[in-house]
C-alpha cells in the first residue's frame, strides 16, 4: 500500500477517505492552517495540487492544535454627557 511508504504524501482525496470526510473539508483545513500541506503546482498556478506529508498527518492525528485567535480589546463604553441629561430632564 502506498500509505505504508514513509515518504508518501497524501492527496486531499486520500485523506478524506482515511478520515471519513469530504476532500473539501481537507482543503478547508489546509486553507485555515490547521493542517500543514505543500503544493506540487508551480508558483502562481490558479489550481494548486495539495499534498500532506505523513509527518503532518501524524501530528494532526495526535491531536490538532487549537489555534486561539488573538483577543480583541473590548470597546470602552462612552461616558454619558451629564449636561445633555440635565437638558432633557423635565
Account of the protein in words:
With 90 residues, this protein is mostly helical. It has a domain of 28 residues. It is 38% helix and 9% strand. It contains 4 helices and 3 strands. The protein has a 3-stranded antiparallel sheet. The chain is elongated and about 80 Å long. The model has no long low-confidence stretch (mean pLDDT 79).
- In round numbers, the mean pLDDT is 79
Shape: elongated
Indicate the percent of residues in helices: 25-40%
Instruction: Evaluate the radius of gyration.
Output: 25 Å
Largest sheet: 3 strands, antiparallel
Structural class: mainly alpha
> Which strand-content bin applies to the residues?
5-15%
Low-pLDDT parts are none
Structure summary, number of beta strands: 3
Number of helices: 4
The strand line-up of the biggest sheet is 1-3-2
N- and C-termini, Cα separation: 84 Å
SSE sequence, one letter per element: EHHEEHH
Any key phrases for this structure?
single chain, 90 residues, mainly alpha
Amino acid at each position: 500500500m502506498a500509505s505504508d511508504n514513509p515518504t508518501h504524501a497524501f492527496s486531499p482525496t486520500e485523506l478524506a477517505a482515511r478520515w471519513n470526510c469530504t476532500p473539501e473539508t481537507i482543503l478547508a483545513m489546509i486553507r485555515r492552517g490547521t493542517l500543514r500541506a505543500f503544493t506540487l503546482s508551480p508558483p502562481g498556478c490558479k489550481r494548486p495540487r495539495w499534498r500532506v506529508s505523513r509527518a503532518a498527518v501524524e501530528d494532526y492525528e495526535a491531536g490538532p492544535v487549537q489555534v486561539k485567535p488573538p483577543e480583541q480589546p473590548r470597546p470602552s463604553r462612552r461616558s454619558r454627557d451629564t449636561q445633555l441629561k440635565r437638558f432633557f430632564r423635565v
